[in-house]
Amino acid sequence: MEELVGILKGIHPEIDYETENGLIDKRIFDSFDIVTLVGQLTEEYDIEIGPEDLLPENFNSAKQIYELVERLMEE
Amino acid sequence: MITNILEYLEGSADRHPGKIAYADDEKQLTFSHLKELAERTGTGIASIIKDHHGSLPVMIFMEKSPDTIAAFMGVLMSGNHYVPIDVEMPLHRVSLIIENLEPALIICDSVNLERMQETANGKIRVLTFDSLCSTGADKDLLERIRDRHIDTDPAYAIYTSGSTGIPKGVIVSHRSLIDYAEHFSEASGFSKEDVAGNQVPFHFDASLIDIYCTLRNGGTMVIIPVQLFSTPARLLEYMDRWKVTVIRWVPSALGMVSAFKALKLCRPGSLKKIIFGAEAMPTKCFNYWKSYYPDAFFMQIYGPTEITGICTYYVVDRDFDDSETIPIGGHIKNTDVFLLDEHDALIDKGDTGVTGEICVRGSGLANGYINSPELTEKAFTRNPLNDRYPERIYRTGDLAFYNERGELVFAARKDHQIKHMGHRIELPEIEAAASGMEGMQSAVCVFDEKKNRIIMAYVSDTLDDIEIIEYLKERLPRYMIPNVMKKIGSMPLTTGGKTDRVKLKETVLKES
Fold this sequence. Notes:
heterodimer, A: 75 residues, mainly alpha, Non-ribosomal Peptide Synthetase Peptidyl Carrier Protein, Chain A, globular, B: 512 residues, alpha/beta, Rossmann fold, GMP Synthetase, Chain A, domain 3, nine-stranded mixed β-sheet, five-stranded antiparallel β-sheet, 26 strands
């Protein structure tokens, strides 16, 4: 989780990722940020994030992103 | 002959009163409702801006919604012109624009009222759209205003980034806008059956097709929420639900869908026309869309804000290899587009491959830049090919050449041309070559003048520097091979959605 927050901080350092749960809904992350994030996650965790995974409910909070990464790593 | 863009609104309201004109999930405006709102808002504005000669600017500071279109129409009803401003723009930049524009009034929505009042600082009157359209329409007043109107009066102004650091406002007349809507409707075959899926922000003139082809032809425009462009599957489901038939997107937006190969999850079934422009279209992205829509109408358009959004178009009706560049084609009706060399001599269509500056003549030419006579004079000059009487052309600063088929092909910005190792190089040529690589998502070159080196920044999940260099060596003369490679997560974008070359260059130079 700490590592993931590090990646997120690299994109938007000003966000409190422990409490924020509207990264997509509040457009804190725009499509540019998402492309950046997905690129980094893919490389860092050696996972493949498909269009079916790119949903607000997977990216609205650090916790949700963490759960997605965990799930994809198991697959 | 039509002389006021509002005649489209009135015509469509007569022919299709109950049809939805502009919509999103929150609100739907029919043509008759839109007309009524425009008349009420126009009355409200005209009762505030009185006793003046000619059209005055009214700034619109509203979130994208059907009401924003009603606000535009209201301003036009009042005999003035509208100036849409990005609500996400830093307020410092907004105040620079206010200083340059000196608007007679600022219209905003209630969520932005407080922010805008602070920015206007008591100097300019700020009112909400809701308050302006709350009173009844004064038809006599509106008729008197219409009676004074001429078609060269401005309809809108759009601010673009200025090289001086102060944004520049391009002011466009009703005549230019009518010329646009007439000929773009014809070229694209936009009809009343069409449902446009709007991606482009209203403060960017690439949205004109969505707004005005819908208005002219009695179609429907659906605003696609911007956050959906972060979730391509949801985006495509939204388009499918609204039965979108035509999209005019910037290539970066089309690229979001192709990068995640999202069409395999959902292929909007009603989509028939795919129009793109405003930046170079990666041919691989085009081919991805084409593979899902082999029978669709694909059109590339080209044209800066200063000539009302379009001066050339190309219907992509043949196959293109991933490394080939899609042409910008030929002129749209009633617009003359020609190339001038560095000595202002005309480049003949038969001079294949000779690069010159794209220059434009026609009713689409903007009136000029607001409060910037020097900038206006520099870009809108006398036609050097005609010394018999004053005739205006617009010099785009874009370079192009004719291919063997006599089609125009965009080469580069005049100011992005580089001289390297004694050779004249157009950086997009290198980019086009690299973009053809399997696994290459995006490649952009910047030139480091100090160290005299070409730096290529690229986005790819699978490729590395050596593979790309090897590939390029097979396709380009050695002096065009990048000196430095930089793998990046994604290309920075401007608020308009284009690749932000300035930001990219800044980042790349800092790191190397």
